[in-house]
Amino acid sequence: MNEEYIKRINAVFEYIDANLDSELALETLSQIAFYSPFHFHRIFKMITNETLNNYIGRKRIEKAAALLLHKKDIAISDLVTQLGFTSSSTFTRAFKKYYGQSPTAFRKSNPHKFSKISQLNSKNGQIETNYDTYICNIINLKKWTTMHANIAIKEMPKQDLAYVTHIGVEGLETAFYKIIKWATPRNILENPTSKIIRVFHDSFKITPPEKVRMSIGITLNQPIAVEGEIGLTQIEKGKFIVGRYEIEPVDFEKAWTGLFIWMNENGYTKAAANPFEIYHNNFTEHPEKKCIVDLCIPI
């Protein structure tokens, strides 16, 4: 795919993320991408596999879902206003169409059992969970987290990243290969403080796996010029829950779920920033093929 297309659409992604409470007109977004509206819409759909309107509508509903999960005091009527819906009934219909239940029912659901993956085993959008089994699974997950994670609250500095965008869980290794291939001849990896990072712009709790957008990046210690699909971004300084794990790749979902449970049970609330992973080794070189990784939740 044309690298210039990706670079320009990345700028649109960032604008949409920051302005979901505003009008996001085709003309405005096409100007950000420096394309005609027709050409922009065609390229956007080619990259995201969604029309612009569908993408914006989904992101607004998913933002509402995230706020319902993480901000128990926010009123549903406030979400209608904040996210630009014309009425509560319009918002409720759109939400129920996407998640199979009303915003009120969604809020009452336990946040750890609700995920798009759960719906694969559901009927008519309603999640079927045996309560006793669920509680047993949570207890086992908490024990697993205690055994495998070293968890701390840390103030982390601002981090500059060079990154590539990847959407979905398929072909993820290609994105890691691209950023490593770019960094290697520039000797960035030779700096012991440089780390590979994966930033999650969407949550697997509320977004279908094939639509989750991620930035695969490498930390930078000095300014550098980039071109094509390699972009520059920042992780702002702040307070984070940091869980250090030494785990197999198949255990990442379990590790993230356990860390969010730890967050809730210890009275912390997720901040608006994006969670991310920091990799400290090449798992293929580990004697047990394990990743040494920090999972970071902004609070």
TrEMBL record:
Quote the InterPro entries the UniProt record gives: AraC_E-bd, GyrI-like, Homeodomain-like_sf, HTH_AraC, Reg_factor_effector_dom_sf, SmbC-like, Tscrpt_reg_AraC-type_HTH
Q: Does the keyword Transcription apply?
A: yes
Which residues are in the HTH araC/xylS-type domain? Answer: 10-109
The organism sits in which domain of life?
Bacteria
Instruction: Show the Pfam families listed in the entry.
Output: GyrI-like (PF06445), HTH_18 (PF12833)
Stretches that traverse the bilayer: none
Q: What are the alphabetically sorted keywords of the record?
A: DNA-binding, Transcription, Transcription regulation
Which PANTHER family does the record associate with it?
Answer: TRANSCRIPTIONAL REGULATOR YGIV-RELATED (PTHR40055)
Name of this chain's protein: AraC family transcriptional regulator
Q: Which organism is it from?
A: Flavobacterium jejuense
